[in-house]
Protein 1
Amino acid sequence: MRKSVFILKGNIIYSKNRTGLEICEHGYLVCEDGFVKGVYQTLPFRLGGNPVCDYGDCLIVPGLTDLHTHAPQYAFRGYGMDMELLEWLEKNTFPEEARYREAEYAEKAYRIFTAGLQKSAVTRACIFATVHREAALLLMDMLEKSGLVTFVGKVNMDRNCPDDIREGTEESAKETKKWIRDVIGRKYANTAPILTPRFIPSCSDELLEKLGALAKEYRLPVQSHLSENTDEVKWVKELCPWASCYADAYDRFGLFGTESPAVMAHCVYSGENEIQRMKENGVFVAHCPESNMNVSSGIAPVRRFLDEGIRVGLGSDIAAGTTENLFAAMAHAIRASKLRWRIQDGTLKPLTVEEVFHMATKGGGSFFGKVGSFEPGYEFDAVVLDDRRLASPRLPDVRSRLERMIFLADEREVRAKFVRGEEVCSQNLKC
Amino acid sequence: MRKSVFILKGNIIYSKNRTGLEICEHGYLVCEDGFVKGVYQTLPFRLGGNPVCDYGDCLIVPGLTDLHTHAPQYAFRGYGMDMELLEWLEKNTFPEEARYREAEYAEKAYRIFTAGLQKSAVTRACIFATVHREAALLLMDMLEKSGLVTFVGKVNMDRNCPDDIREGTEESAKETKKWIRDVIGRKYANTAPILTPRFIPSCSDELLEKLGALAKEYRLPVQSHLSENTDEVKWVKELCPWASCYADAYDRFGLFGTESPAVMAHCVYSGENEIQRMKENGVFVAHCPESNMNVSSGIAPVRRFLDEGIRVGLGSDIAAGTTENLFAAMAHAIRASKLRWRIQDGTLKPLTVEEVFHMATKGGGSFFGKVGSFEPGYEFDAVVLDDRRLASPRLPDVRSRLERMIFLADEREVRAKFVRGEEVCSQNLKC
């Protein structure tokens, strides 16, 4: 059978590793059957005759991966921020999430969230819903239509939260199983379930044990929070006196990368034991620098994670973070690392443009498989960026233009977006 | 003579002091002859019959003041940031600034800068040009046409910079005097000169003495940099062994608030002596949090300044900061203060929404006189913000909408802008 091939032309930038950038100016990026065939300075003779979309002087980068976000919190992004994590959860988050019991509200809110994600440069995301099974399915239906590829989790909570969103332990496990079977029945192409115990303070050992069994039975990945805030870390020690570290409280139940892939958000206060556990278990870190500033958590030792070879991606962490714009997350990651280096620990050098770009593309993307790069065989997720809004008396070089995107781009720069070889959204189209 | 009166209607928000917000929902903001007459929940009978522009559910806030920015650096905002201050000056800034010798380049670049400022929510700014007299005048001509009110400074430098932008000591003073007289001759309505010794490392004592004389002769205000970076502070100690602190190196020559108002950017490393000097001399601080992160300077102890009663405004510090969007500066100020509190010094509590809003309006505005508030008698600078882009399943209260603006607004939210009672720019008009 004849293969489906198309070609994008522009200034192609991608990461093979975290220290360098691959740049091919006015080059050809070839898609074959949804996968990257290659990047070429000159189009090979054998590929001639296929359609080329020439984006002129635009930048073409891999789709970005948001490794940690909360769909129901998009409704209150940008306000109620004069608090730390635990108070913020109690005052802002839990009351808002309780509203998702009502399908009508959930539909209205999730439509806004999905539209925001669709317009952005993000092509993949790991998303928390709420405890409500129906609302989670509704969100997954919408995301499936968006063309983006996502992991979505119905949240589990059976303690330390208000009555109206607390599940019974047995109920939580049962609803989760029912949700998984519903999802399987819907045969989504791009939307997959991920187990989502909220965090240790809101999940009893018994619940975690049941979720561990589900992870094994259905081979489901896991997402949660880890060592975000000092009060939270202290609380986990009280709740799980038997755990050698916060991570251990997940690991004991097979929810920390041993049975299935796991991604943990924050890791601001991960000590040496925990870092080693993350490394041994191949756990992904979702670094959420804006969130860590906004709710006064601190700054994660990202350079340590990278030095250990731990895989790190970026998370917007809506609504402790305010924006789905992953370029902003890259810039915040650089800034946070500079402050950490200056103020807290001069041994951990600031993150570079190359490193944060790697995190936002291949670093986080690899949670989805071969995603986030233009190396041959990678899934074809690409974003075309038009930076003419940022007028300049002289055009900087391509690497500088990428750096400028990191500090200044938003959805206005997204000219076109491709996921798994399909164009999903363009500013020129009605999304 | 009949007075000129017009009225804006909307959700009016402003600061009287730094701890509270004045909010008048669906209220009337009355302008009389370019000044604020008052804010009213119900329009007083005697004001009836005057034109009302009803902005519905929009927010109306005082125009924002950017207390520190560099017009020639707008050309390279967002890139070349993997450096600290002194290296960044040498590699990025000085070579770019040297280009402003050519009028053609300066015109092209300053047109972009001015357009950016005009679209933003900023109504007042303190702006560095370059050492070039002609280019500074050109910038002032453009700003005058923009309708914004600005202080603009021809920069002075006679040491420690490349030959092509270093002036002789005598030459620098002479050119400055000629520039001042040229400015006086142009009879600008909204554009005023401000003395601008770049910073101590690039100005000899002899030059500062001459500038001090000019400050006195022409009663000109002064803008400069102070205690931004550790290496810079060390260098100043070597260059001015006679100075008791960095501030003293300006103060000795009458350039630190005694002869005329002075605004100093950064003050990250101002010690107790320097803080007391700032207080005694009534010096304004231009807090530039994004810049301080981007070039790894650190975090200024803003809470200390406020506790001392020192007047603090916000600066974008383009291009060590990346954006003229002062909302972003407010958000960065909050974030930086939270990290400082968490990591560096738990005694200085994080800045609040009320405090950063005050800094961006009345705090910085007061460098221009009675500016930055809607109290009666203030100059009428107002910005109308339309936040419908930030869709939400339910409309938050007005204070929350202001907080959301701080974290998420950019020039797209600016529906209309008034300076000294004149409408200067609206997204609906061609600016």
Protein 2
Amino acid sequence: MIEDTPVAIATFRDAMARLGAAVHIVTSHGNAGTTGFTATAVCSVTDTPPTLLVCLNRNASAYAAVVENGVLCVNTLASSQQSLSQAFGGKTPMAERFAGGEWTSLQTGSPVLHGAIANFDCRIVEARQVGTHDVLICEAVAILSEADSPGLLYVDRAYHALSLPERL
Amino acid sequence: MIEDTPVAIATFRDAMARLGAAVHIVTSHGNAGTTGFTATAVCSVTDTPPTLLVCLNRNASAYAAVVENGVLCVNTLASSQQSLSQAFGGKTPMAERFAGGEWTSLQTGSPVLHGAIANFDCRIVEARQVGTHDVLICEAVAILSEADSPGLLYVDRAYHALSLPERL
């Protein structure tokens, strides 16, 4: 039998902070404007069809535009792009956030970051509400994966880079 | 306008392989038996209530038991637990998989791995079909996070450990 002892939010956040995760800037462009935010809650769902998911707080400043645009691009950061992660994760005005990087676009028009280790240009096929967040199910319509640099990781509330000697 | 050019599965898999991710053994125990599998497609959804998600292929050997049990435990591996990751990710018989670790339980009865960097004991509140996979929405009912060792990471199809000098 499962007792109904609620888990403290701080306990959950502290335990989750221990998990290493890639860092992404998720961008979107369309009728509702151009926006972008830093995210670690991104994961692969299936390759048939190529689909990933992004968890987004419905209170986030980017939320309305992303959902109305119906498209987004997941730009997975290289270890040299820590300052961009901080800009897109804070209160920096949107224009200033984008000024820190070089951008192109693929199919959806969402900003595609130059120098990222991967770019997943996606249309949102479903938005599923879970508590305070939406789980956005995103089908990739175009992908770039050219940069051969190490990825940026966020673990224990700090940035890290993986270098080859770390391979086990 | 978004053209309907399908993204090749290999392109998607290769790009996804670049993303660093924590490695987990997801276990489940209940009327449908005891099972476990290795997963990297796990992410935090919301802390209100404390909720994470796990993506699971409906063709996986563990799928039926996990969904029928309605509970699971996400055990986030330490860098020393690479061999367990391999055992739970391959074709090793279930009894042999569990023989490689020390296990306890918390509230749901699902096996809780000793020495993991975090254990999230959960009940599954929703299973959402996306392509070949289910996205399992899981509410944490008990959490352990005691081990202070570095986590195991899987990047570029290889295992890695993070050590402190990597901090940027």
